[in-house]
């Protein structure tokens, strides 16, 4: 029922459609260009053969660390609580583990997003930092940084 | 001049022939030259002919014909010369001429196998069946040892419906065959032989034949199908039933098997049929066919239960073709109502409880709700309740904005609502979401053509056509007729008659080409023994232009030619149109001569290129030589109506059951003043639908034309008078029209036709005309958008005389309330709002 699939130049516009309705932030062209070259780090989630969600990450090698950063992970409102997010997150965690050289997985969550907080905590993510005024055009503009250590 | 050459030259001549056969054209020419340079034999006919034949293969057509004609003149009694001339004619596709040449050749060498074979091919191509049979008989007599001789002759007899001879020859041939364990070609032969028994109506022999050779026939399904039908024909019900049940077991999705079984079992009531179908529904759980058939024959609560089960299953599976399967049932109003209520109930339950029925145990996945909304949008679109349909499709897209089908459906609804701009925009949106899907790509191109954006349509198609070639050219080469038809329609709307005609002729040529392409199969199929397929191909080619694609194309061509007749385009007109950007006459002249020179140069260059090309490929040379279709020349013709008739003929031959054929025929003959032919088209149309609105107008026009024409030939006038009385049902013209209006009170199409006729009859009755055609209070007026749009255009075009602006405006307003989405009735403000939506959509796609 739930399957992951590739994002290709042919269907990348569906990702734009998804992101525009799921997230309050809009992403630039570069984001979508990078997604096309990131292989398994960017995936669609199919539910009964329909694209309903997507996850996009990149490897972040700053401060002498290799970390996996989840840029977006989301699913359409009508398809929540069906385990689609779990499938996507598990996929990401597994990628990070098989890579072998990744210290941790991290991401940003808007501070009022309780569902997201509960979701990630469930997978062993912890708040390591609060960034004030992280978001530019949305309220509240602060974000938590959540991290799950792998090593 | 004697044709006999001395031994040395004769040897050379043989080498010429051999070189030709082995395609060593240069050597062939060399040897021919050696003969012809001997003064004594400079005019040797056969050598000249052979030289011509070789040159023809090298693409030098004119020279070739010259030589062959000269050769023939010098040696009229030579079979070689005649044969060569025939080959040349054949390469020119002048098959009738070629047949004559071959016949002449045979006069001098009546048993020449090669010529006989070539002749037989031409005869079957031209469907000279009797000639074909005679030639095949000759061949059989001369070469009884060859398989093709027997098959060819029996096939000729078969096509002439001389079944007895055909079967006798086939049986003789069969006897000579050894039985091998696996022989596909022999299996095909047996099936062919069997099909001749069946066509001859010899059911008993047919069945026995099958039973006898069953083991040697590979195609098991064909055996069973024929057995079932023939057993039924013979009244062997038990056998027939058994075979049909076996067939269903093999393939439970074939409707024909079920209907065949119903016929065998003589089930007369719906209930009996429903019971039979139920049996199969139980047995083949995954098969749709028995379920859908059962829905046809049940009603009331039983129907409700079955259709509910069917729809629920499909909604859960997420099956977009659900609506297509259900659609045939909607013709029945009660069934449509039941379906509507059921699905509305589902959508309500899903929205509130995530269940299809409130007492269901499990919750449904969100996709079930999605497809339920989708179904409802399709349902209301079908009944042209477009505002409701739009509401549902919007819900679909709110729910799942990534559902591509949602956008295509919304585009379709806008199309039905006559808002083509938005429709095209949405279809392109759908396309952009999956650019690897050629189906949506084509749809998007088609919608672009509907808004006359040919350039964008071409760009869209180019994403899938071969690189390096223009899409338009490639689509023509690929015989992509839907595209060309839509292009033609678009050009016609834009008044570019020449361009439209070009497209129509291109399509017409595809049909000619398909008929042409048979040629290769005459030998191929005989050799490969695919005889049944070959026969059905021949029969298909015979009625090729009955294809709906041809119909569409012919209708456009007729419209184009008729409009050309009504508004001829002169050369100057066309030119001023092209160069109207403020040039003085002198400048214009200069520019034109420059253009002409440039064009000539380009043409020359092209010719050279064609010449220098490797001309071994004869086919290519042929194609290059074909005259290109020039839109400008296509419109400058003296006889547009005669051209229109060329397109009309195939419609009269193959689409006579379609009323439009005869309505267009009238349009043409009316303009040509051909009274008997007008009458013929009216009578034919009347036999199909005596109350057709356009037919009514045509009858009125005809009656008036007859009245106005005083000098009709006496015999003609007598026929016309008598028949006219029949057409008018013995009434006076005015009375006939009143009667028509009265009789069809509840149809806006008829009322507006009545109004149009009244306007023709009595131009001063404009009050009544307007009252009739502006009336909008009918049942189901929401489905009549095309008629309303036509009336509105007629009002604007002053078809009913000068109509006060206020009347038109009132009509527009009422229509725009009835059809809020239709672009044609929108005032400027709404139109600009639409434009805003269109542009906001394009912004969205940029983002």
UniProtKB/TrEMBL annotation, chain A:
<keyword id="KW-0808">Transferase</keyword>
<dbReference type="GO" id="GO:0120518">
    <property type="term" value="F:protein N-terminal-methionine acetyltransferase activity"/>
</dbReference>
<dbReference type="GO" id="GO:0031415">
    <property type="term" value="C:NatA complex"/>
</dbReference>
<dbReference type="InterPro" id="IPR016181">
    <property type="entry name" value="Acyl_CoA_acyltransferase"/>
</dbReference>
<dbReference type="Pfam" id="PF00583">
    <property type="entry name" value="Acetyltransf_1"/>
</dbReference>
<protein>
    <recommendedName>
        <fullName>N-terminal methionine N(alpha)-acetyltransferase NatE</fullName>
        <ecNumber>2.3.1.258</ecNumber>
    </recommendedName>
</protein>
<feature type="domain" description="N-acetyltransferase">
    <location>
        <begin position="2"/>
        <end position="151"/>
    </location>
</feature>
<dbReference type="InterPro" id="IPR000182">
    <property type="entry name" value="GNAT_dom"/>
</dbReference>
<keyword id="KW-0963">Cytoplasm</keyword>
<dbReference type="GO" id="GO:0007064">
    <property type="term" value="P:mitotic sister chromatid cohesion"/>
</dbReference>
<dbReference type="InterPro" id="IPR051556">
    <property type="entry name" value="N-term/lysine_N-AcTrnsfr"/>
</dbReference>
<keyword id="KW-0012">Acyltransferase</keyword>
TrEMBL record, chain B:
<dbReference type="GO" id="GO:0005737">
    <property type="term" value="C:cytoplasm"/>
</dbReference>
<feature type="region of interest" description="Disordered">
    <location>
        <begin position="591"/>
        <end position="633"/>
    </location>
</feature>
<dbReference type="Pfam" id="PF12569">
    <property type="entry name" value="NatA_aux_su"/>
</dbReference>
<dbReference type="InterPro" id="IPR011990">
    <property type="entry name" value="TPR-like_helical_dom_sf"/>
</dbReference>
<keyword id="KW-0677">Repeat</keyword>
<dbReference type="InterPro" id="IPR019734">
    <property type="entry name" value="TPR_rpt"/>
</dbReference>
<feature type="compositionally biased region" description="Basic residues">
    <location>
        <begin position="591"/>
        <end position="600"/>
    </location>
</feature>
<dbReference type="InterPro" id="IPR021183">
    <property type="entry name" value="NatA_aux_su"/>
</dbReference>
<keyword id="KW-0802">TPR repeat</keyword>
<protein>
    <recommendedName>
        <fullName>N-alpha-acetyltransferase 15, NatA auxiliary subunit</fullName>
    </recommendedName>
</protein>
<feature type="repeat" description="TPR">
    <location>
        <begin position="79"/>
        <end position="112"/>
    </location>
</feature>
<dbReference type="GO" id="GO:0010698">
    <property type="term" value="F:acetyltransferase activator activity"/>
</dbReference>
<dbReference type="GO" id="GO:0031415">
    <property type="term" value="C:NatA complex"/>
</dbReference>
<dbReference type="Pfam" id="PF13181">
    <property type="entry name" value="TPR_8"/>
</dbReference>
<feature type="compositionally biased region" description="Basic and acidic residues">
    <location>
        <begin position="601"/>
        <end position="633"/>
    </location>
</feature>
